[in-house]
Amino acid sequence: MNASSSSPASRQRVAILGGGPGGYEAALVAAQLGAEVTVVERDGLGGSTVLTDVVPSKTLIATSELMATVAGAVELGVRFPGHGTSDTEPEGAVTVDIERVHHRVKALAFAQSMDIRARLEKEGVTVLNGLGRLDGPSTVEVTEGEDAGTRVEADVVLVSVGASPRELPSAKPDGERILTWKQVYDMTELPEHLIVVGSGVTGAEFANAYDALGAHVTLVSSRDRVLPGEDADAAEVLENVFRRRGMTVMSRSRAESAERRGDSVVVTLSDGRTVEGSHCLMAVGSIPNTAGIGLEEAGVYLSDSGHVDTDKVSRTSKRGIYAAGDCTGVYPLASVAAMQGRIAMWHALGDSVEPLKLRSVASNVFTAPEIATVGWTQAQIDAGEAQGDIVKLPLSTNARAKMLGIHDGFVKLFSRIGSGTVIGGVVVAPRASELIFPLTLAVEKRLNVDDVAHAFSVYPSLSGSLAEAARQLHRLAD
C-alpha cells in the first residue's frame, strides 16, 4: 500500500514522523502551503507534550496551585469549615482526591489530542497510526500499529519523534512505586512520602505540585542547589520556599539506586545514606527517540547523545530531511519544537523564513512561585559574554503583591550598556509565565528601556514592577 500513490505530481509530498508540537504544527503549515501531508504517530496526536508531559503536568499543577492558594487564605482573612477561629491553620480542612485529579488530567489530555486530530483532518492531513521508520532518505514505512505495512513516498521528511524519560539500570520504574513522569498519573492514592530524584525543571515542578497536594516530599539533588540551569537568584528563592513549606531538600546528594521493598521504596545515595518513602519519581533527564528508526542509514548525522544535529532552519545533514523538537537537543520546550517544525516547512516548501532565534525564547518553570526567563542571563553577563546593566526589584515592595499576600519573588531586567536595549529578564512570581511576555516582546523587537518605562502600566499591578525596573535602568544609562 502506498499512501501517496494517487497524488498529483505537482504537489510536494511531506511525511512527518511524530505528531507532537513539532510534527502537527509543521503539518498545518505544510497543508496551508499546498503540500500533501502525512503524519505518522504511534501514541496519539500531541505526542508526549499533550498526553504525558506538558498538558498533564500543568493540569496537575493547576490543582496544586489552588491547594496552595487555599493554604494561604487565612492570611487574607478567609476561613474554611474546620479551621476554627485562630490564625493557626489546622490539618485536614482541605484535602485532594488524587484519583479524581489524575482522571481529569488524562481526560483533558485525551480531549486535547482529539482536538489536534480533528484540526489536522480538517486541513486534509493524512494521519497514520503506528511507528514511522525511514527506509532510505525519501521513504517512510509504518512498522507498528494499526497502519503497519503502509509506505509513504515523500519529497520532504520531518523527524519529530520526541524523547522519553531516562532510566537508570539501578532504579528501574515499575509503574507502581518507582515512577517516571509518564507514570505518575496512574497513581490511585496520594503518596504518603514521595522521593523525587532530580532537581531540574521536571523534578522541581513535580516536587512542588505533590507537596502542595499534601504529600511529604523529599527532593534529592546531585547539584548544590535546585534548578541548576536557571537564574541563581530565582533558584535560591524557590529552594527557600520549598524548605519553608516543609519539603526536605537534599543538595549534593547523588542517587545511586532505588529499590522497592513491599509498599515502600528505598533510595540509596552515593555516600551510603538511604532515604525511604512510599513512592519515588525518577526525574533524571530524557533520551531522544531516535534509535532504530533508520536515521543514520538514511544519512542523518546523530550526536553521541543520539540527538539529531540541525541548523537554524531545521535541516539535518541529509538533504530533504528536517528535524524538530526534543529529538534535536535544542531547548526542550513545546514552543521551540513548534517553531522548529514551522520553520522546516517554510524553508522546505519555499516560503519566506527566518532562522530560529533562541535568544528571544521565553521559558517558564511551573512552580509556586513560577520562574520565567528570556534572553541573556545574569550568569552570561557576569562572565562577560554580554555587556549589560542589571536591576532587580523585590516583589515585596509592590503594592499589588502586598494585597495578594505575595512575599516571595522579584523582577530582574537586563539592558545593554550604552544603548539601553532590553536584552533579557527574569520574573519570579505567581503567573510569571504571563508576566514575562512584555519582556519577551522587548527582547524580540529590540526595545529600549525607555520604551518599556514610558508605556503605561496599571496601578496596582505586578507588571508595574517591570516598568519601574526599566525606569531605574534609564538612570543607570545616564
TrEMBL record:
Record keyword Nucleotide-binding present: no
Keyword Flavoprotein: yes
Named cofactor requirement(s): FAD
InterPro entries: FAD/NAD-bd_sf, FAD/NAD-binding_dom, FAD/NAD-linked_Rdtase_dimer_sf, Pyr_nuc-diS_OxRdtase, Pyr_nucl-diS_OxRdtase_dimer
Matches recorded under Pfam families: Pyr_redox_2 (PF07992), Pyr_redox_dim (PF02852)
Domain Pyridine nucleotide-disulphide oxidoreductase dimerisation per the UniProt entry, residue ranges: 362-469
Source species, domain of life: Bacteria
Gene3D superfamilies tied to this protein: 3.30.390.30, FAD/NAD(P)-binding domain (3.50.50.60)
Alphabetically ordered keywords of this record: FAD, Flavoprotein
Domain FAD/NAD(P)-binding: 13-341
PANTHER family: MERCURIC REDUCTASE, NAD(P)H DEHYDROGENASE (QUINONE)
Family to which the UniProt record says this protein belongs: Belongs to the class-I pyridine nucleotide-disulfide oxidoreductase family.
Protein name: NAD(P)H-quinone dehydrogenase
Organism: Kineococcus gynurae
